[in-house]
Automatic annotation (TrEMBL):
It comes from Arthrobacter mobilis. This is Leucine--tRNA ligase. Residues 422-625 form the Aminoacyl-tRNA synthetase class Ia domain. Coiled coil: none annotated. It catalyses: tRNA(Leu) + L-leucine + ATP = L-leucyl-tRNA(Leu) + AMP + diphosphate. Residues 659-783 form the Methionyl/Valyl/Leucyl/Isoleucyl-tRNA synthetase anticodon-binding domain. The gene is leuS. Belongs to the class-I aminoacyl-tRNA synthetase family. A motif ('HIGH' region) lies at residues 41-51. Residues 221-406 form the Leucyl-tRNA synthetase editing domain. Its EC number is 6.1.1.4.
Length: 821
């Protein structure tokens, strides 16, 4: 009794929840299982507003499913390897684990305060040796299948972080972490062969349609970038001492073969060096120096003037024997397709720009009805009829593509081909705080995997401060004791691989580990995984649309092929929550508009902050903290909580005898909430809940009174629905209503169908006092709704006959009088 005090309530319940273990799944098969997962956090300092939003959303789902009778797995853990810990350790002359585990403790305490209904007994950290042992074990399984391999190639290099980056970590030519423009560096690095799975990653997206945001699917589809066309071989004629040879191009438009007027190879390839004649050699070398300084984005920009160098050679068109000059240019990329193209300037804008810059011929081969590209400077790409193309003349574009492929296949100079934009996943990092790559390099035996029974290869714990600073080679290389070992195969002196794995490897399988986090016989107990996975609802930010989600999908498919899991997709449904903004902008240090979560919780209480987050907008939309009212939420919570003081009927009182109007509101709220929750419209559920609280208050204060069992029924529904958003207040209300032990152990209320039928009344619609229409409307219709309905009436419109309206008098639910101007 007394006044609503969030701090008093917050002090009371965590111990109760912990003791009851209400958030630990029974896992005994007595109920259907469901797995709800929030993308696990990185332990950078304390929780922030973004965590508060994402975890509030995930918790709504977990709590709702629990009330609906499912056995719910809702675990929590930390993605705890990564650069910030290392940078902090360098600055403080410490070990990265100190900063990491201290932050984890801070966040764990905040999560507990925030009342996330998580099963804390399953907590994991990817930087624990018990976890990364299995990351290493999985790496070795990939290695055995040829899916983890090392190669020397130019890689993305961040000159600030002094480490390589995966393509997925380069955003607009810059490091996704620090924003420094990325350069290329030739290094021997480890890769995962994700390209082997390109087709399946694409096809299996069909399963996800309707359950994942379309935007995320589109981004993945685009990233995988499947193109269909042909590989066509062009003979390059001998020149001087240089012998003739073949070079293959990838084209999506073999129908335009007759329109090829020159041939281009990427300037920064070996192929360009192999092809160039002695006369043109110096020109090419100069040009390559200039190209080095450019990013891929700049290279492909249609805005930039085209540059290139003639290589002194000619390629022969396999269909008509025509000789095409061979050029090297930067707009052709070394690592896409074959790194060489046939240029068709009439129908490809970049080729046309190049042709105009170097005065090369333009030949239209597809009549699209548009103007001549050689005159307009605009390449034509639409549908049309093939011309100037000998045996292809008269065909449509699609027919031409098919026919041209037949022709080159018959001549043995080409074949149908599919090309992907997706590249293999570069996984080595020259940093310390990550999972060591479990490979030993032996002068005799080459690469030797560390035997499973010697895992984990643990990180040395004596490196601190400056010893961890990035030098371009891994800091592990300086730990001589650690590096020097013996070859598991021949016993001779050998060295450990000194790179660590991209932290996205750690997060590619953690959702599996949660099924059996203490399992010691393997990365996970396959039976436990069979029971719980795939994840029924995954919740996280759209910034992971490609990286984490694509990698996890890839891991799952490999594990399926290894016989370790029996599903293809790890996350059945995905919810991308919006961002939390302040003043319409993302919170940032430089803007000084950051909002501290801890301060908000101290000021308004956990429940008010949670409720505000969910109430602000549909889960996918951004929340602007400048536009919301946590104090308004706090007032509503107090109002809901006070219902508990006014219910005067005993627990278990039969509501059947209670006030029918209130019962009808209660049951409609329950039924609608259920539907809204299934449709992820959490914010609307809160709006409906507010209406129910108002209706209950009205009933108590009017004739119905607190002793009516319908009031109890309504208050109990309020407690149960409220528990999804404001668990502390809901618990206290539930206890005030005489229930034990926890509202989290309650059941979602059953809906009585006959109470859903709305009572209706007949409303009379008048124009200037004369009855013009009668409408059947709900007895509790609002003034605005009734007014809107009346103005939609055809009879009213006819009577008004174009006259304007002076005023509308509304007496809901029975009368509307329209007064014309
Ligand atoms: C001839 C042609 C004629 C082309 C035409 C297009 C239009 P997508 O769809 O992205 O896969 N291409 C091939 N390899 C390239 C490389 N390494 N760097 C830059 N461009 C490259 O694009 C495939 C098309 O992009 C290919 O088809 C090729 O140009 C070009 F009217 O061949 B096409
Ligand atoms: Zn050896």
């Amino acid at each position: 009794q007394g006044e609503y005090s969030f701090s008093a309530i917050e002090a009371k319940w965590p111990a109760v929840w912990e003791e009851l273990g209400v958030f630990t799944p029974a896992d005994d098969g007595s109920r259907e299982r469901r797995y709800v997962l929030d993308m696990f956090p990185y332990p950078s300092g304390d929780l922030h507003m973004g965590h508060a939003e994402a975890f509030a959303m995930g918790d709504v789902v977990a709590r709702y499913w629990r009330l609906k009778g499912y056995d719910v797995l809702h675990p929590i853990g930390w993605d705890s390897f990564g650069l910030p810990a290392e940078n902090a350790a360098i600055k403080r002359n410490a070990h990265p684990s100190e900063w990491t585990y201290a932050n984890i403790e801070t966040q764990a305490a905040s999560f507990k305060r925030y009342a996330i209904s998580a099963d804390w007994s399953r907590r994991l950290h990817t930087s624990d040796p018990e976890y990364y042992r299995w990351t290493q074990w999985l790496f070795l399984r990939f290695y055995e299948r040829g899916l983890a391999y090392r190669k020397n190639s130019p890689v993305n290099w961040c000159p600030k972080d002094l480490t390589v980056l995966a393509n997925e970590q380069v955003v607009n030519g810059a490091c996704e972490r620090c924003g420094t423009p990325v350069t290329k560096k030739s290094l021997n690095q480890w890769y995962f062969k994700i390209t082997d799975y390109a087709d399946r990653l694409l096809e299996d997206m069909d399963e996800l349609k309707g359950h994942w945001p379309e935007r995320v699917l589109a981004m993945q589809r685009n990233w995988i970038g499947r193109s269909e066309g042909a590989h066509v071989n062009f003979a390059i004629e001998a020149a001087g001492d240089l012998p003739a040879r073949d070079v293959t191009v990838f084209t999506t438009r073999p129908d335009t073969l007759y329109g090829a007027t020159f041939f281009v190879v990427a300037a920064d390839t070996h192929l360009a060096l192999d092809l160039v004649t002695a006369e043109q050699h110096d020109a090419l070398m100069d040009y390559r120096e200039k190209v080095k300084a450019l990013s891929d984005i700049e290279r492909q920009s249609t805005e930039r003037e085209k540059t290139g160098v003639f290589l002194g050679r000619y390629a022969v068109n396999p269909l008509n024997g025509e000789k095409l000059p061979v050029w090297a240019a930067d707009y052709v990329l070394a690592d896409y397709g074959t790194g060489a193209i046939m240029a068709v300037p009439a129908h490809d804008q970049r080729d046309l720009d190049f042709a105009r810059a170097f005065d090369l011929p333009v030949r239209t081969v597809l009549d699209t009805g548009e103007e001549d590209p050689s005159e307009t400077g605009v390449a034509t790409a639409g549908e049309g009829t093939l011309i100037n193309s000998d045996e292809l003349n008269g065909l449509s574009k699609a027919e031409g593509i098919a026919r041209a492929i037949e022709l080159v296949e018959a001549a043995g100079t080409g074949e149908h081909a599919v090309n992907f934009r997706l590249r293999d996943w570069l996984l080595s990092r020259q940093r310390f705080w990550g999972t060591p790559i479990p490979i030993i390099h032996c002068a005799e035996c080459g690469e030797v995997p560390v035997p499973d029974n010697q895992l984990p290869v643990t990180l040395p714990d004596d490196l601190r401060g400056e010893a961890l600073a990035p030098k371009g080679t891994s800091p592990l290389a300086s730990a001589a004791d650690w590096v020097n070992t013996s070859c598991p195969s021949c016993g001779r002196a050998a060295t450990r691989d000194t790179d660590t794995m991209d932290t996205f490897v750690d997060s590619s399988w953690y959702y599996l580990r949660f099924a059996s986090p203490q399992y010691t016989e393997g990365p996970f107990d396959t039976e436990a995984v069979d029971r719980w996975l795939p994840v029924a609802q995954y919740v996280g930010g759209v910034e992971h649309a490609i990286l984490h989600l694509l990698y996890s999908r890839f891991f799952t498919k490999v594990l399926k092929d290894l016989g370790l899991v029996n599903f293809d997709e790890p996350f059945t449904a995905l919810l991308n929550q919006g961002q939390v903004l302040n003043g319409g902008k993302a919170m940032s240090k430089s803007l000084g508009n950051g909002v501290d979560l801890g301060e908000q919780l101290d000021k308004f209480g956990v429940d008010a902050v949670r409720l505000t987050m969910v109430f602000a907008s549909p889960p996918e939309d951004d929340v602007d903290w400048a536009d919301v009212s946590p104090s308004g939420s706090a007032k509503f919570l107090a109002r809901a909580w006070r219902l508990g003081q006014d219910v005067a009927s005993p627990a278990g009182a039969d509501p059947a005898a209670g006030d029918r109007a209130l019962r009808s509101v209660t049951h409609r709220t329950i039924a609608d909430s259920q539907e809204l929750l299934e449709g992820r419209k959490f914010n609307v559920v809160i709006a409906r809940l507010m209406e129910l609280v108002n209706a209950t208050r009205k009933a108590i204060d009017s004739g119905v009174g607190g002793a009516d069992p319908a009031v109890r029924e309504a208050a109990e529904a309020v407690a149960i629905i409220l528990s999804l958003f404001a668990p502390y207040t809901a618990e206290d209300l539930w206890a005030a209503l005489g229930h034990e032990p926890s509202v989290a152990a309650a059941a979602w209320p059953a809906v009585e169908q006959d109470l859903l039928v709305q009572a209706t009344v007949t409303a009379v619609v008048q124009v200037q006092g004369k009855v013009r229409d009668r409408l059947e409307v709900p007895a509790d219709i609002s003034e605005e709704e009734l007014k809107a309905k009346a103005l939609e009436s055809e009879h009213v419109a006819r009577t008004l006959d174009g006259r304007g309206i002076r005023t509308v008098i509304v007496r809901a639910p029975k009368l509307v009088n329209v007064v014309p101007a």
